[in-house]
Amino acid sequence: MSSAGVFDHPAHAGNGAMGNGTDAAAAARYAYAATLLGPETFQRMQTAKILVVGAGGIGCELLKNLVLAGFSNIEIIDLDTIDLSNLNRQFLFQKQHIKQPKSLVARATALQFNPHVSIVAHHANIKEPRFGAAYFRQFDVVLNALDNIDARRWVNRMCIATGVPLVESGTTGFIGQVQPINPSKSSCYDCESKETPKTFPVCTIRSTPSTPIHCIVWAKSWLFVQLFGADDESEDEELDKALQEGENKDEIAALRNEAAEMRAIRKELIDAVSKASTAATREEDAIEISDEVRAAVRRVFDKVFKQDTERLLRMESMWTHREKPIPLDFEQAKLQTEVVAPAADPQASASKTNGEGSATASTNGQPADGAAASRLRDQQMLSLKDIVELFERSTATLALRAARSEESLSWDKDDPPALDFVTAASNLRSHVYSIQPQKSKFEVKQMAGNIIPAIASTNAIVAGILVLQAIHVLRADWNRAKCCNLSRVSGRIVTIFTPLAPNPECGVCADAYVELAVDPQSVTLRQVLADVVRAPRAAGGLAYGSGGDFDEDLELELSAYEGTRLLLDPDFDDNADKTLSDLGLTLGKTLTVVDEDNKWVSVNVLIGEVPLTAELADRANQSWVLRGRIPTIGLKPQPKKQAEEDEDDQEIEVVENVAPTIAGKKRSAAELEEEAGAAAETETPADEEGATRKRRRTTGGPTNGEPGPATGDTSAGESKRARKDPNAVGSSADDAIELD
């Protein structure tokens, strides 16, 4: 098959110095792909502009797939830098790349796979104003490879606003999913609610922990920050909020005193280490350099694990229904050398049953018994004595680092002293509150680092499916674009199903979006509402016809928001004559206009760049321009009235008594006559008003012994559920992955 013309893409023009040799090399590289996909599809791949958001586990695999498949014009954005823990699955990175931007390193490595492509990398936040509607609109498809809900929602909203197709993806362990999103035609990322990250009440973390994760969060997010992090100016606000939410006022007062004392303890610790730091050549020497440093660490221990606990015990009402904590004495703790093995450890249980006693620990947290020593070091259980010594060493080491650094420290799961500190502090707190089981360093790293198990093969499979779906999207072949779930629950590895229709009640894709190119310093909020939102289309606004205000309601009562911040409503117009800039509505921000009567869909006005002079040439006295497609502002779908729903639910069907049959079984004429006779003998008396002859129509399948539909007969309700359930096992043609 001839591939002439396929490779004449601007991305290759930059290699013109090599002349025809480069074109020939590219043609040879892409020959198989062009043959398999066909010249038209491959030409589309060569000319399409692709945005990849995320250069992590999926992003690395995806970028590699794109450059090898023949995509020639790619931009990639990622805010993160490379950690040591990334190297086991993000193969574009190596040890020398640690702390470097993921996007820049991924680009450099991918170009080694294929130097004939154009890759633009941004080490930036996708939510920055420069990545606004105009930026998204230049792409043919956006491929999401993100690991957090907030960024995913942002990209989803921008794609919906600009009409750019999006292919969403994600993995967790052995589970993964890919979702192609056709704006306004299929459900978007926000059409179904997402689980929000787990948070804990401040008083639970600070005063009444009950699980190991409470202690780990306390050690990482409070104690570490108090001793080595930046001054937390928001702590008083956090305590004020807790007080307003009904938390115990005596407990809040105690926490305020505790915070003030911690600031003094921190100063003592840093000062002690600063005096001794000149004698130390390494961070690890800090604990040995002076008795003054050891005494400062001891004061931290006594303050946190003894004095604060004793103070809490004086508030007797807190412990009416809770187990009381036990203050921890430093000297007594260093005498306890017994290792408390996990309850689930069969070797430890057998050891105790046989009367061998508990394993004992040697110094420096290294268990002496052979069984425990065979464990990986980070998974070993420590004695209380070892935990105290680990707390001493890590606290002194971090304090020395903080004293020598001009900047405050931040916690990093891949920083050994920081991980040691949280491991020791959280386990000591668990001991104070009698919380079991003890957590190893390995477990603490997983929990404190919010580490979701990442499997390289899962990322590879999902990235491959991403590329297949991207090809369907570029061909505008939405009949082949499928949602794909990677899981073993249904007995198969990949389950595919047709994307659902948009949710009419979705707070994202059900809204209208428009980009307003404007100078925020010269236009007021009142002008935007009057000249853009309320004005008829004939005058350059959004309303239909010539009447304005969406042509049906000439005096709509509107409210305006920026995010959740109220800017204007019918009873509050103090901001109406302020400029957009004064209200914080600058480049990249969104003004949301809501109909107070809730009849019309909300309008989201995206603030774009200042319009060009040429754009305003034929617009007299107008300083703004609507860019992109002008949205249709429609009425919101009205929910059914309760009475109508009840009427539908109670629709009945009058049937004659029919004996249940087995689906798929053929019956002879004699059997039919026998069944009819049996039905006549058991006919219901008339005084029962034929109640048993009425049956409520349902879509939930057979109930109370009623026969369901025959095999192969699927009701509308069941069909809908099958599409919603990615793990449902079916026999439709959609169950096979289409490669072409």
Automatic annotation (TrEMBL):
InterPro entries hit by this protein: ThiF/MoeB/HesA, ThiF_NAD_FAD-bd, Ub-E1_IAD_1, Ub_act_enz_dom_a_sf, Uba2, UBA_E1_SCCH, Ubiquitin-activating_enz, UBQ-activ_enz_E1_Cys_AS
Biased composition (Polar residues): 348-366
Cross-referenced Gene3D superfamilies: Ubiquitin activating enzymes (Uba3). Chain: B, domain 2 (1.10.10.520), Ubiquitin-activating enzyme E1, inactive adenylation domain, subdomain 1 (3.50.50.80), Ubiquitin-like 2 activating enzyme e1b. Chain: B, domain 3 (3.10.290.20)
GO cellular component: cytoplasm; SUMO activating enzyme complex
Catalytic residues as annotated in Swiss-Prot or TrEMBL: C203
Pfam families: ThiF, UBA_E1_SCCH
Residues the record lists as binding ATP: 54-59, 78, 86-89, 102, 147-152
Composition skew (Low complexity), residue ranges: 699-712
Binding-site residues for Zn(2+), renumbered to this chain: C188, C191, C506, C509
Ranges of residues in domain Ubiquitin-activating enzyme SCCH: 209-439
Claim: Metal-binding is one of the keywords in the record: yes
Keywords assigned by UniProt, alphabetized: ATP-binding, Ligase, Metal-binding, Nucleotide-binding, Ubl conjugation pathway, Zinc
Pathway(s) it belongs to: Protein modification; protein sumoylation
A GO biological-process term: protein sumoylation
UniProt-annotated stretches for the region Disordered: 341-374, 664-740
Domain of life according to the entry: Eukaryota
A GO MF term: ATP binding
Domain THIF-type NAD/FAD binding fold: start-end pairs: 35-506
Family of this protein: Belongs to the ubiquitin-activating E1 family.
Name of this chain's protein: Ubiquitin-activating enzyme E1-like
Organism: Tilletia horrida
